[in-house]
Recover the amino acids of this structure.
């Protein structure tokens, strides 16, 4: 009487033993090109009434991390968008806990030039996923970047140059920014679906206009108050109040975007 | 003179010799004695348990088949009798016929029997019993032998699928009474008794949880650290979605520094566990905080069969040494005992050592008709252990590290606990009251490192977590029978936890270089529930009601400010359970329940809530009570008392899950999830000394928006078990468990595995020798696999890309135990 159940148990045991040996599989990874994309350098009018045209921006950055939205952030993000991010409270940043599944490690000088060509930054390694965020670190540029001693970026973190016009007065400007080495920008928006076998190119953009709120990269800067740098230009140097305002703006993720672009 | 005249009670005057073999009633004497004494049966707990066997209060004599009588034949008919909760006989099936007309005669008579119903915690329940009707020709005897040998309960306690085996020592009959319905029963509810526990390989009482179908446990460190639990598609982490009670006392640690609802069950001495109640899903009214996936309730006590003074010594591979002293006076209540253990184990790999000492003492202070019963319990344990963390699979493949090795040799933990409780139970007529008061002290320290140098390339990522907690609380349960078919259930729960916790990053010299958390808080939980238990007919049972839970937090986050932040949150949880017996062998169930999980206290402190804060970054969502909506439908088929088959389908839906991200210190809201699945099980007892069990659980857990699988939970689990309990003193057990593949984060998949554990034991006189072998085939397997980034080589380059890490499962290990019981 007991033979049947025992035989069945043995049979089932064998089946279970065999089927229980599924192999572990790692996540599928792929590569994607990352370029500096200057499409975000559009002329903007600041809160102080300056029409600002950014010609060139050069940043010393390192260690790009690409993050997927995961399951912990989508609802927050959706909610924020529904609110049109009307106040600073609702600004993006919901990627703070974003899960890093892609990276482009190493030091880089990123140069954006209005109307310029896309400059390759490197090839990122990524896991398959829907990418929604970008993290990176500021650093100080130096000789290891191949910069000459007279290069305006040498010893600094960022240099931006362009023109600011107001009341018929046009001022060329150069903004020289120092940001503590290792300062991390977390949660710059990204939109890209990455699948193995499908070529992808990420365009890393600096935005002069906040895409989610009525604000610009240069809000709060009174170009007329900046130190003169020759007969037709002004310069902002570290240690000034204006510098500190602008530095904080650069440290937030509002003015960066990782776009899907063509190589 | 011994004539052939048959005696009976038929109107025809022909006496039917019906020497009753009332094996059915065996055991009632013991129960009755307990009740006559006014108290509850010893060892009774709030968990569903067959506390009273059915008692025959109307016997219907059978007509002696004329042909058989004429031929002078005698016989015994074994019937399977379904008794409704009102004591009426629903059905009677002949399972061992005697022929010669005895079968029909017996069945006709039994169908006219009436019983005082069986009970679970004072509530009448339906049961199935085996009944032997014996026809014999007795000289000069005109009535059934109402003075059948006094029924005596088998020493083994009630348990095992609510199964009470009762044997008449003066006869060959053995009667099995199996509960077929109960006030708190759902399709998947299960009670695991001492018979099954005794053949489960175990190192700690945690291992008993593995007996529940679909449960997967993962140890992140070594024995001593809390386990990670997977159940019904939930990654309950260290306990956030599984409620655990020990002797009725809630063990989950709210807002533990290492994880919400942290469970450390190492203090439970396995020999003091007499039962484990498994309630999957939050369908019972008394299931509270953390019961989103279900509730496990450990019942403590020492059954009479194991009582005495026992000294046991265990030695094993991995240099395991254990000593146990168990004093359980015979004749005393099951809840009266003293047990103490000391154990050390070097573990099966580096960083897996463990040392633990603990003691538990219980006493039934009184038990009488008027005052009820009072059980006192005190338990305590101290432990220290290593924390080897996980190893990168690619590092193992490259030979960088061994599968059973650890990157760190300085990580470990310590765990202390003291728990006290007093439980009073009393019954008056249709009303019963169960009052529990408990308190305790808890200390936990963990120094671990799962990521190497990923976050801190210079100092390393070691983190030290420490907390002390004082807990006090009370629980009250009352059941009041309003009518024969309607009862009111009410309950009140209260618990207060005062916790001081700290988390720091420490370097290789264990010097702190970053404060992560430094908080003190008081968390208060209050709950009340009320419901009705209604039996509109013997075949139907409806239990419905709702509970209200409220949580108050007073948090002083020393790293944030000097203020005490206060928050109050709550949730309402309706519950409904319906049972129906359309036919004798079938039972159908369906249930709905809302489960809940409180947020962590620290999560109620909103970062950046001040007016002048920098709001350039997300500062976290609001803390909230997470609620889940669960349903279950299933059936049980019990053609005989030796066979039970079951099937249940379940689903759990969570719209908004609030989690506190310890890394970022923010409240995050998970997208909606749904967990669907089914489980099937079988329990067969082909012969009295052999139990065969099998189960299969399928689970599909997904985020409803993306369709991605919820990481960690296996897609299927299965087990096959055979257990021998022979009268010769031999016992043996073998259990094969297979775990299917598990989806991991970022599209990775963890492989499945199968394990075979065996044991054999022999008891003769006072001596008992037992050998347990885990993982008999010596399979190398990863008990847990996780996909995350780590960097174990200081200095660049560091990769943030997740990679699979393994928590090694134990290789083949053996333990030999010699025990002497006097």
């Amino acid at each position: 009487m007991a033979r049947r159940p025992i035989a069945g148990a043995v049979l089932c045991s064998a089946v279970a033993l065999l089927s229980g040996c599924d192999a572990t599989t790692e996540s599928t990874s792929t590569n994607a090109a990352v370029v500096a994309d200057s499409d975000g350098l559009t002329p903007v009018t600041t809160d102080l009434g300056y029409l600002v045209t950014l010609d060139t921006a050069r940043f010393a950055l390192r260690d790009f991390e690409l993050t997927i939205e995961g399951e912990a952030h989508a609802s927050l993000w959706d909610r924020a968008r529904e609110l049109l991010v009307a106040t600073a409270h609702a600004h993006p940043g919901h990627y703070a806990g974003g899960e890093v599944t892609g990276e482009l490690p190493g030091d880089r000088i990123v140069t954006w030039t209005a109307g310029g060509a896309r400059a390759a930054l490197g090839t990122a390694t990524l896991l398959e996923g829907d990418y929604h965020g970008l993290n990176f670190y500021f650093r100080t540029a130096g000789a290891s970047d191949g910069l000459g001693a007279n290069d305006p970026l040498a010893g600094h973190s960022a240099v931006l140059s362009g023109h600011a016009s107001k009341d018929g007065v046009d001022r060329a400007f150069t903004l020289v920014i120092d940001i503590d080495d290792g300062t991390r920008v977390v949660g710059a928006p990204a939109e890209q679906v990455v699948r193995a076998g499908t070529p992808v190119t990420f365009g890393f953009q600096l935005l002069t206009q906040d895409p989610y709120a009525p604000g610009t990269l240069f809000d709060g800067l009174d170009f007329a108050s900046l130190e003169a740098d020759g007969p037709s230009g002004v310069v902002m140097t570290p240690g000034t109040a204006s510098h500190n305002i602008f530095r904080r703006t650069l440290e937030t993720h509002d003015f960066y975007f990782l776009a899907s672009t063509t190589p | 003179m011994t004539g052939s005249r048959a005696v009976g009670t038929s109107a025809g005057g022909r006496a039917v010799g019906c020497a009753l073999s009332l094996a059915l009633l065996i055991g009632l004497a013991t129960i009755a004695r307990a009740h006559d004494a006014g108290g509850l049966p010893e060892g009774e707990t709030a968990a569903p348990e067959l506390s009273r066997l059915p008692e025959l209060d109307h016997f219907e004599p059978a007509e002696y088949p004329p042909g058989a009588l004429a031929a002078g034949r005698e016989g015994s008919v074994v019937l399977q009798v379904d008794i409704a909760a009102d004591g009426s006989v629903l059905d009677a099936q002949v399972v061992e016929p005697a022929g010669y007309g005895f079968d029909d005669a017996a069945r006709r008579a039994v169908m006219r029997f009436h019983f005082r119903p069986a009970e679970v915690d004072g509530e009448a329940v339906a049961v199935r019993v085996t009944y032997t009707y014996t026809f014999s020709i007795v000289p000069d005897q005109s009535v059934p032998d109402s003075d059948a040998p006094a029924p005596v309960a088998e020493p083994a306690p009630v348990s095992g699928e609510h199964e009470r085996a009762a044997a008449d020592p003066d006869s060959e009959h053995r009667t099995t009474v199996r509960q077929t319905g109960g006030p708190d029963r759902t399709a998947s509810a299960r009670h695991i008794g001492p018979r099954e526990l005794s053949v489960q390989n175990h190192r700690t009482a945690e291992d008993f949880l593995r007996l529940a179908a679909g449960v997967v446990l993962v140890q992140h460190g070594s024995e001593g650290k809390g386990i990670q639990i997977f159940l019904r598609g939930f990654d309950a982490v260290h306990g956030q979605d599984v409620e655990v009670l020990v002797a009725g006392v809630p063990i989950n640690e709210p807002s533990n520094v290492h994880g919400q609802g942290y469970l450390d069950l190492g203090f439970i001495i396995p020999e003091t566990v007499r039962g484990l109640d498994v309630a999957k899903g939050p369908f019972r009214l008394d299931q509270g905080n953390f019961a989103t996936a279900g509730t496990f309730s450990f019942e403590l006590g020492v059954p009479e069969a194991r009582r005495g003074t026992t000294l046991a010594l265990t030695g094993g591979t991995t240099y395991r040494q254990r000593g146990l002293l168990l004093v359980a006076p015979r004749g005393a209540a099951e809840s009266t005992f003293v047990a103490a253990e000391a154990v050390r184990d070097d573990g099966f790999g580096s960083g897996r050592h463990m040392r633990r000492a603990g003691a538990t003492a219980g006493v039934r202070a009184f038990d009488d008709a008027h005052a009820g019963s009072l059980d006192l319990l005190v338990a305590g344990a101290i432990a220290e252990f290593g924390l080897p963390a996980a190893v990168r699979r690619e590092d193992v493949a490259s030979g960088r590290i061994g599968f059973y090795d650890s990157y760190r040799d300085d990580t470990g933990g310590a765990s202390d606990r003291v728990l006290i409780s007093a439980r009073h139970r009393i019954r008056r007529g249709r009303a019963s009251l169960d009052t529990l008061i408990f308190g305790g002290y808890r200390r936990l320290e963990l120094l671990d490192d799962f990521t190497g140098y990923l976050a801190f390339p210079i100092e390393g990522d070691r983190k030290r977590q420490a907390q002390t907690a004082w807990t006090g609380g009370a629980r009250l349960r009352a059941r009041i029978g309003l009518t024969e078919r309607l009862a009111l259930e009410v309950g009140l729960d209260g618990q207060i936890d005062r916790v001081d916790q700290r988390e720091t990053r420490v370097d290789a010299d264990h010097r702190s270089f970053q404060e992560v958390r430094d908080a003190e808080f008081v968390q208060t939980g209050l709950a009340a529930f009320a419901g009705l238990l209604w039996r509109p007919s013997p075949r139907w049972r409806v239990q419905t009601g709702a509970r209200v839970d409220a949580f108050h937090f007073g948090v002083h986050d020393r790293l944030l400010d000097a203020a005490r932040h206060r928050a109050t949150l709550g949730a309402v949880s309706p519950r409904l359970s319906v049972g129906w017996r359309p036919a004798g062998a079938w039972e159908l169930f369906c249930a709905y329940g809302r489960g809940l999980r409180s947020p962590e206290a620290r999560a109620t402190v909103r970062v950046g809530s001040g007016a002048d804060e920098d709001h350039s970054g997300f500062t976290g969502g609001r803390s909230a009570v997470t609620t889940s909506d669960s349903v279950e439908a299933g059936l049980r088929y019990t053609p005989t008392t030796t066979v039970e088959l079951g099937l249940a389908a379940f689903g759990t839906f969570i719209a908004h899950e609030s989690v506190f991200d310890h890394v970022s210190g923010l409240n995050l809201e998970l997208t909606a999830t749904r967990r669907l699945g089914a489980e099937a099980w079988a329990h067969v007892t082909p012969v009295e000394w052999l139990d065969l069990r099998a189960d299969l659980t399928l689970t599909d857990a997904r985020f409803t928006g993306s369709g991605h699988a919820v990481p960690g939970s296996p897609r299927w689990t299965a087990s096959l078990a055979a257990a021998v309990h022979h009268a010769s003193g031999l016992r043996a057990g073998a259990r094969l468990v297979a775990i299917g593949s598990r989806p991991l984060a970022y599209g990775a998949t963890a492989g499945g595995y199968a394990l075979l554990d065996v044991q054999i034991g022999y008891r003769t006189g006072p001596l008992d020798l037992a050998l347990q072998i885990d993982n008999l085939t010596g399979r190398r397997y990863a008990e847990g696999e996780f996909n995350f980034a780590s960097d174990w080589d200081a200095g660049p380059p560091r990769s943030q890309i997740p990679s699979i890490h393994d928590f090694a499962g134990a290789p083949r290990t053996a333990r030999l135990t010699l025990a002497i019981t006097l």
Q: What stands out?
A: Chain A has a mean pLDDT of 81. Helices of chain A lie at 3-19, 74-82, 241-251.
